[in-house]
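Notes from hallway chat w/ T.B., transcribed later so I don't forget. T.B. wanted the structure written out for a chain they're using in a teaching module, and asked if we could keep both sequence and structure tokens in one place. Agreed to drop them here.
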Amino acid sequence: MHALALIAMVALQADEKLVWPMADGFATAYQQSTPDGAEIEERVAKGETVEAWSRMLTRITFPGAVDPALFSTRMAERWQQSCTGAVASAPTAGKRGVDIRIDCPRNPNTGKPETMFQRVVPASGKLYILQVAFRSVPTAEQVAWAKAELDRATLCNAASADKGCR
């Protein structure tokens, strides 16, 4: 019985997927996947592009188990190396994943400020990275919108009762 329960638990975890509904007024502008299971999807406001955007939602899937707090810390370090004056919050672990905010006062590629809210969600053998980015300093209303968008993502498995998983 114990072995059967373990097999069932592993099977449920193997079916895990992250569901992140499309935000109102957004469309997929870029999508790519690799044979090893890595994926990226970039969503921008309708009428914008991945080169010229004001807000971007990005979903990345990495195969393999990686510590989400370590991933967030390394992401912050990369931003701080590439953007003079970049500031990052400490990674905060919650029930939905590890969150971090990174502010770049002037992106060297665009000359504009850029702020990213990131959630890293570990799943069975995968790491999901969700990002909501602004090419501006976000207002309090935009910060609330970014957090609400991240909260719309749901980690699902075969036993999930959440309506977003059906």
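Follow-up for T.B.: The radius of gyration is 17 Å. Might be a good example for the class.
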